[in-house]
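tokens incoming
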């Protein structure tokens, strides 16, 4: 009984572990960008309480949003450089398809 269980475990593909690692990697990247977007606003809110002002929170959230958007653009650019096949259209618009040929006849 024990031998058959070992055979079943050894025949399993390691693919789910790789997919899970990729998912965890993306979750950590998204959380990092989220932190970059929210942290300056929270710091601005703290400064507003300390200095009795109202404008630090707005500036903090604006700068956080700007930094987060730049971070997302850099993240996507790196991903496309690492995986050049990703992000390309599935069908080239200039390529003739059989449906287009039939419509033109």
């Amino acid at each position: 009984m024990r031998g058959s269980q070992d055979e079943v475990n050894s025949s399993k593909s390691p693919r789910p572990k790789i997919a899970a690692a990729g998912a965890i990697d993306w979750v950590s990247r998204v959380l990092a960008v989220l932190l970059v977007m929210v942290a300056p606003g929270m710091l601005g809110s703290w400064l507003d309480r300390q200095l009795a002002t109202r404008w630090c929170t707005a500036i903090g959230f604006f700068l956080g949003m700007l930094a987060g958007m730049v971070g997302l653009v850099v993240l996507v650019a790196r991903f496309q450089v690492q995986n050049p096949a990703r992000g390309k259209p599935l069908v080239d618009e200039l390529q003739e398809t059989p449906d287009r040929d039939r419509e033109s006849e």
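note: The mean pLDDT is 75.
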